[in-house]
Design brief:
homodimer; 338 residues; alpha/beta; 434 Repressor (Amino-terminal Domain); Rossmann fold; 3 domains; 6-stranded parallel sheet; DNA-binding
Chain lengths: 338, 338
DNA sequence: TTGAAAGCGTTACCAT
DNA sequence: ATGGTAACGCTTTCAA
């Protein structure tokens, strides 16, 4: 069984040439080193014949680069992150990179541990959705010369590459949309979080509310987990009659909120109009179809790879961070219109 | 910036001992090699102080093991696979393994290419949802001594470890359930696929139908993609009036089917009762809530890791494949009862 | 009880 | 034009 793996040494010996020669040919330096056309062909043919491929491990050790990028997100089983993962993966392979993923569960301790683990493992770069208080670790990464791109959230105190979306602007638009549709008491249901993507969405909501001389109704769900969320939102609606519009800042909050409203006999969109951040396949299936803000997944993935490859490219190493702020799209559906 | 990475050599030099000594201490062989308690402590203290960690790359090169497992599924952005991924990931890290993921899109060519890529990259093991006609590649992996566990599907012709669920049995139960609820014309909507997980589900359906002396109505959607699926299913219902029960073999078929039925004005469960394979968060949110077969995700992940670690464990290398066939659970909800 | 040195598979500098 | 060889960082055998 297991045909012993060939090494460059074996190739060289069999062909009666030196390792160096083989290595040069392998790395496309035959011309440069003026190795005869004939020998080059011969070596290449033999290599193809026996199906030899260099050991990436040895190359990594020698070159100090592993061609591995870590994709560290809040939760890889979350549809949004999984979709990005999928898109990134493709682009990474195309460029000879592998992706290792991991989930932080948005816990700072776990994120730090993960970062340390991978620093040690000679990965080349990190794509991270930072947890709270991760500034120091991230700076450390930068100092030590790792490639780094943040996404979904960024850190005002750290100068680095990132790919994010226009959270504030989209939240403003969503809220304004509800107001335009005649809502007078528009609530924001969000998670209790000081992370910037959430505070930006809050800001957008607040701006829209105050520009229209309305009163804000902000409800922040604490210690988010599915079951709790549902209960809290149920309470909120019970205690706040008269709400006629709701903007959910994440899709899972919306799912729970819709369930809660359904069980309270609240008619959507008749009594309450609804908009959610983060579009989802299911929003289009739900009755009524839910209006939602769609993030440009494909573009996010593309820019993420562009940024990380840029960082990893020796030639451009020092040309400064790449920062992308992408536009979302408001998909208007039944929940805010009928 | 970038404080130069320490090597074992640096440690040895600074402490004035040999590399060997440090290595032994590092690898817990201090006692065995009878290195003085005192020296051991001193070295350990220093290592901790400077935060030294061995290079995994060099270790891998030396030991021929990389502590990397490839998780190769049909589509990592699919909820089912993403959930498993998430669970696997945790368990892998706990055991010192990293996970690299990739999606085959169920294309044999892509799967083969991916397998080759990773073989070359010195990964230790593979967890694979095989595409059609992947037998040879899989056998190759086995021959070359890689760890291997199949899941979701298995290959009758290849003796190897796998983790699957009771597809036929659950399909039988689901169909029988519809019949018990009074359905007389029960349709099966499935994908056109010769892969065993799907043929097993078909078998289960057929058995239940024939045991109850009913007629089968099997509709196999070809060339599956979201948009097409919807259209085809729409046609099916238009052309087959009188169907009063449907069993969907995957959840995405169910989503499309439900949408199609909704648009045709078919009342679920009044006119048509519905059961789907692969439970989903949204089945519980949908109106009506959808009856579905739930695969034991947590258990699948657990057994997957158990099987792969078993394979990778030197000591037990030759103790034969581990094959798990797990039970599903039928979650009965409104779509098949009211 | 400790150390020297070979070897894992490469790359690339320096010779020839 | 081609080859010898040090180095990457580690483990482990053998010797002392």
């Amino acid at each position: 069984m297991a045909k012993k793996k060939l090494s460059i040494k074996d190739i060289a010996k069999t062909l009666g040439v030196s390792i160096t020669t083989v290595s040069f040919i392998l790395n496309g330096k035959a011309k440069e080193k003026r190795i005869s056309e004939e020998l080059t062909k011969k070596v290449q043919r033999y290599i193809k014949e026996v199906g030899y491929t260099p050991s990436h491990l040895a190359q990594s050790l020698r070159l100090g680069k592993s061609k591995v990028i870590v994709f560290m997100v809040e939760d890889i089983s979350n549809q949004f992150f999984a979709s990005i993962a999928r898109l990134i993966e493709e682009k990474a392979y195309l460029n000879g990179y592998k992706i290792i993923y991991c989930s932080t569960e948005n816990e700072t301790a776990k994120a730090k541990e993960l970062i340390n683990t991978f620093k040690v493992r000679n990965v080349d770069g990190f794509i991270i959705t930072p947890t709270p208080d991760l500034e120091e670790s991230v700076k450390g990464l930068l100092d030590e010369g790792f490639g780094l791109v943040l996404f979904d959230r960024w850190m005002p105190d750290v100068l680095c590459s990132y790919v994010i979306v226009e959270n504030e602007k989209s939240a403003f638009e969503a809220t304004q949309h509800l107001i335009d549709r005649g809502c007078k008491k528009v609530a924001l249901i969000t998670v209790e979080s000081h992370q910037i993507q959430m505070t930006d969405r809050l800001k957008g909501y607040q701006n829209a509310i105050s520009q229209n001389q309305l009163s804000p109704y902000v409800f922040q769900v604490k210690f988010h987990n599915m079951a709790q969320g549902y209960d809290r939102i149920l309470d909120f609606f019970s205690n706040n009659p008269g709400i006629d519009g709701v903007f959910f800042t994440t899709n899972y909050l919306a799912f729970e909120g819709l369930e809660a409203m359904g069980n309270l006999g609240i008619d959507v969109p008749g009594q309450v109009k609804v908009v959610s951040f983060d579009d989802h396949y299911f929003f289009n299936l739900y009755k009524p179809k839910i209006t939602a803000i769609e993030q440009p997944l494909e573009l996010i993935a593309e820019k993420l790879m562009e940024a990380i490859l840029h960082q990893l490219d020796e030639a451009e190493m020092n040309s400064g961070p790449k920062q992308f702020i992408l536009s979302n799209k408001l998909n208007i559906r039944e929940s805010s219109t009928i």
